[in-house]
Specification:
Structural class: alpha/beta
Number of helices: 10
Number of strands: 12
CATH architecture of the largest domain: 3-Layer(aba) Sandwich
Shape: globular
Strand content: 15-25%
CATH superfamily of the largest domain: Periplasmic binding protein-like II
CATH topology of the largest domain: D-Maltodextrin-Binding Protein, domain 2
Distance between the termini: 46 Å
Number of domains: 3
CATH class of the largest domain: Alpha Beta
């Protein structure tokens, strides 16, 4: 297996369209198709379902996708170490679904602090493991989480709401309440990725009288957008910013649980620096909220 095959696979999975992925990669669609077919032969199973509208990952493709990201991330890290062996590196984990302005601010951090910022797309559970083992300097996680032994500062605290495809019946309702969710499946995530947050939200749903059937989906936006657009009776619980550019519709839900994101770090010697960074991220996150988030409140 070649790294380029994994990179091509991820591009097609994200774009869900061969031609768009080929344009993004700067190669011919026929060449990209041949590489995907070669990868499927190595895997021994189809990785995509092909339709006139595009290509969507199969169950095998969805299983491969997070592993492919890990391999590509490790390869990039090795190259960075070789190119700049003496440059200080700040390793920061970012959970899927974090406030986009805060993530962008982290990406700009290196230019302001004269260091290399290595952002790693990691679920909460893996971030906490790496923080305690010294593999990360800080992490942007969703709460509640077991941050025992770690310092933390909340950077965003906003309500969740119902996220549906534009064609979903609930998209046409100005007001959505808990009884409207009867019979709807919840597109959620595997508990092992963020156990505390997973259980907290489902407990709040149960308290409100909604105990939906759960469908575990990939945290990648392209994949959960496709799931919501499948035409099934399915909703997601997300903050307002997850609606994006119009493919999805967000509706407020009275009494919905809230989602809190926090910056966490391990080394107490850098506490003041990370607390200052958390305050900066809180300012950035305000652009995507209806309420002023905590300014790096511990």
């Amino acid at each position: 297996m070649e790294l380029r095959q994994l990179r091509y696979f991820c591009a097609v999975a994200e774009e869900e369209h061969l031609t768009r992925a080929a344009e993004r990669l700067g190669i011919r669609a026929t060449s990209l198709s041949q590489q995907i077919i070669a990868l499927e032969k190595l895997a021994g199973t189809p990785l995509f379902t092909r339709t006139p509208a595009g290509m969507t990952p199969t169950a095998a493709g969805r299983a491969l996708l997070p592993k492919a990201y890990v391999v590509l991330e490790a390869a990039e890290e090795a190259l960075r170490a070789a190119r700049e062996p003496d440059a200080p590196v700040l390793r920061i984990g970012v959970t899927p679904g974090a406030p986009p302005p805060a993530v962008s601010a982290l990406g700009r951090l290196g230019a302001r602090r004269e260091c290399t910022v290595d952002l790693r797309d990691l679920p909460v559970a893996r971030q906490l493991e790496r923080l305690r083992a010294g593999g990360l300097d800080a992490g942007l996680v969703v709460l509640p989480a077991d941050t025992t032994g770690l310092a933390s500062a909340v950077i965003s605290d906003v309500p969740l709401g119902i996220l549906v495809a534009a064609g979903h019946p609930l998209a046409g309702k100005a007001n959505v309440d808990w009884p409207d969710l009867d019979g709807q499946e919840l597109l959620w995530f595997d508990r092992e990725l963020a156990p505390g947050y997973h259980d907290h939200v489902l407990a709040a749903c149960a308290d409100a009288g909604w105990r939906p059937r759960i469908r575990a989906g990939a945290p990648r936006r392209a994949l959960f957008t496709a799931e919501l657009g499948s035409g099934e009776a399915m909703v997601a619980l997300r903050p307002r910013w997850a609606a994006g550019d119009g493919e999805l519709v967000w509706r407020q839900l009275p009494g919905a649980p809230r989602v809190r994101h926090a910056l966490v770090w391990r080394n107490p010697q850098h506490g003041s620096a990370f607390a200052g960074l958390a305050a900066e991220l809180a300012d950035e996150a305000r652009a995507y909220t209806d309420e002023a988030p905590p300014r790096g409140q511990r």
